[in-house]
Amino acid sequence: MELETKTKISLHELLKKHFGFDTFKNKQEEAIRNIIAGRNTFVLMPTGGGKSLIYQLPALALEGTAIIISPLIALMKNQVDSMRAFSMEEGVAHFLNSQLTKAEINKVRSDIIQGKTKMLYVAPESLTKDENIEFFQKINISFYAVDEAHCISEWGHDFRPEYRRIRPMINQIGNRPVVALTATATPKVQYDILKTLAIQDADVFKTSFNRPNLYYEIRPKIGATKEIIRYIKNNPGKSGIIYCLSRKKVEEMADKLVANGIKALPYHAGLDAATRNRNQDAFLMEEVDVIVATIAFGMGIDKPDIRFVIHYDMPKSLEGYYQETGRAGRDGGEGQCISFYSYDDILKLEKFMQGKHLAEQEIGKHLLFETVAYAESSICRRKILLNYFGEDYHQDNCENCDNCLNPKTEFDGKEYFINLFNCILEVNEKFKADHIADILTGNATSTLKSYNHHMLDSFGIGSDESKKFWLSVIRQAMIKKMVEKDIENYGLLKLTDLGRKFLEEPHEVLMLRDHEYEEGDDEDFVARQIGDSALDSTLFSMLKDLRKDMAKKLNLPPFVIFQDNSLEEMAIQYPINMEELKNIVGVGAGKAQKYGQPFIDLIKKYVEENEIERPQDFIVKSVVNKSSLKVYIIQSIDRRMSFEDICKAKGIELEELLDELESIVYSGTKVNLGYAVAQMVEEDKLEEIYEYFRNAETDDLDTAIREIDDPEITDEEVRLVRLKFISEVGN
To answer: How many whole angstroms separate alpha carbon 310 and alpha carbon 292?
Structure first.
């Protein structure tokens, strides 16, 4: 009690002394006093809300050492460095993890025993080690802080099974007050955290999830790499994070940024710890402007002036999205959150779930559904996000998201709501959104038939609209609090009292039609320009004629010289020198040198004669031959390694190897594939396929398979021989 009184008097002095602040933010002070009073505490604050201070200050004020459980080694290092910067005593904060040497572990333990260490950061796995449990039982622990507490819940975006073992370990070490902290938790996740940590009696401190300084925008994923490079070039010197789905894409994106003059580094779990730490420090010290990271591996970086967060791939849940975008503008300044969306990415994420437990798949699909809903919706982004976290946002226009700055036309959705609500009641509120949408559109799936739902009055009543539209109606009804999901039962739809009242007295309800995002491929940007003003059709026709004449003189199929998509980009970008031509898609240094000069001469003359104003837009520089994987493949083929051994060495499938080889060969690099093709394709088949390409007008794979028309020849064999042909004849 004496300590509590003393701390009450000096709390602001401690804040000033240790952190240099004069006042607390939001509910920091109340939460800190709660911890000092020895009570269990639950803190739910958005990224940048000052959660760390809530356990750091009590740790400094109280006797003993606070055990802070954190999921990321990178985050621990960041927090420890931060605390040491505030304190004169280097031993004030330590971390204990698998990366430390025996001598370093002994130093940590010595500082704790001497009373120097007020905060010890540990991974949950460290709690389970017998030697650590034995040591912790001997020391004075002030309290336990569980950071990133959402990791406890299977409904959270970053579930970690080891977090489920924290409470049993605390019981074994010695019971002290527990503080759980997270930046993202839906009501369901919050319930899981309190229950699993056995702190249902905890005092809860929540602040608004609204981050008014963050701008949210979703863009279709067409030409995304080019868009990203353009954006960064237009915002020189600003710090940013780009999130990608796979480690491979992280590496590729980082390489492309560097090739285009942007200071960038990769960051993912596949890098060794020293490289990750080095790259993180380079970002914090502003030696690089951009970090490219995997969604699966959280950054754990406490950098206040990150100005943009770009998602090249959409994350698996809205919680993940909210936390990752929340790393922008933590100082209250500008924060641009731009995401590139393609439904293809969602399908990929669904495929990753296959093979997991059914319950885990159900949860994963539910979380993905919310992500799709957010991406495709035309409603205020902020309103959807806050609604997801159980918070109401009462403004109609936030004036800081793409949907509010460019609103879609509203229409009266009364009849749609009536049909939807009647359908939900007709199935006794026991089915999910997907099933309800199938009933309304008249989609008689086998599941529907098994319940005889194709016999319902509601079946097909909304068949004039798409399933996507009805899913949008469901989402908008949820935002208007007329429909809710029973989370305990994987999202069964139920009417609220407000929804039932609406059915009794229907009235006008304003709705918006969702975005219809065009499906596309990032690298297929040029092809999608055809048909609009970007492509100079006259020049394109002239380039095709030139290619045809050259092909005739050289006795080659035209596609061996340049493919159509290369000519198309030439007719958009107007390259007038060899350097510019090398940056055209599918044109490497070898091909440019061998065939390029007549094309450059033609384009240059055409530009001058027609006074063409060439695009001021930069051309994204290719890193085709700079990729370490491509270099390895070329060197391995030079050593006549089998394709099977190359795939094993790099942990890739044959299809991925062929993709890489096509990229190498089509850009003009000659590789001697004869030995590999001979191993994999019988001689008579090889001759038949080779002869086809010698006389073909196109190298299109589907056309080749159709015209060769031999059931014994596989698609793979056609691809292999096509590669050999292009390399030998064209390069």
So the answer is: 9
| pLDDT tens profile 592-629 | 888 899 999 999 898 888 877 665 444 555 554 445 67
Q: What is the pLDDT of residue 65?
A: 93
Same domain, 38 and 183: yes
Give the pLDDT score at 89. Answer: 72
pLDDT at position 453 is 95
Residues 15 and 156 in one domain: yes
Task: Give me the residue label for tokens 């095709």.
Answer: 544
CA-CA distance, 730 to 436, in Å (whole number)?
Answer: 56
CA gap 306, 240 in Å, rounded? 5
Q: Which residues of the chain register pLDDT less than 50?
A: 1-9, 523-533, 616-618, 624-626
Q: And the tokens for 331?
A: 């100082």
CATH of the domain at 678: 1.10.10.1390
Asked if 497 and 579 sit in the same domain, the reply is no
Q: Please say whether the beta carbons of 305 and 332 come within 8 A.
A: no
Q: Are the CB atoms for 158 and 151 separated by under 8 Å? A: yes
The dihedral through the CA atoms of 191, 195, 197, 203 has a sign that is positive
Tokens describing residue 206 = 């929540």
**pTM for this entry:** 0.58
CA distances from 503 to 205, 337, 419, 495 (A): 37, 39, 10, 10
Query: What would the two tokens of residue 619 be?
Result: 């051309």
Widest pairwise Cα distance in the chain: 97
**DSSP track, 354-387:** TTS-HHHHHHHHHHHHHHHHHHH--S-HHHHHHH
SS (H, E, C) 419-479: HHHHHHHHCCCCCCHHHHHHHHHCCCCHHHHHCCHHHCCCCCCCCCCCHHHHHHHHHHHHH
pLDDT at 528: 37
Contact 496, 197 (CB under 8 A): no
10 Å CB burial of residue 552 (0-12, 13-18, 19+) is: exposed
Domain boundaries, position 119: 2-206
What's the structural domain count of the chain? 5
Cα-Cα end-to-end distance for the chain:
83
Tell me the pLDDT tens digit for each residue of 96-120. 877 788 888 899 899 999 888 999 9
541 near 400, Cβ under 8 Å?
A: no
Q: Exposure string (b/e) for 10-29, b if CB count within 10 Å is 16 or more?
A: ebeeebeebbeeeebebbbb
State residue 578's pLDDT score: 87
Can you name the residues that pair with 141 across neighbouring β-strands?
Answer: 65
Which of 389, 373, 471 has its CA nearest to residue 209? 389
Of 545, 514, 270, nearest in space to 408 by CA: 514
pLDDT for the residue numbered 254: 93
Dump the DSSP string for 88-136: S-GGGEEEE-TTS-HHHHHHHHHHHHTT--SEEEE-HHHHT-HHHHHHH
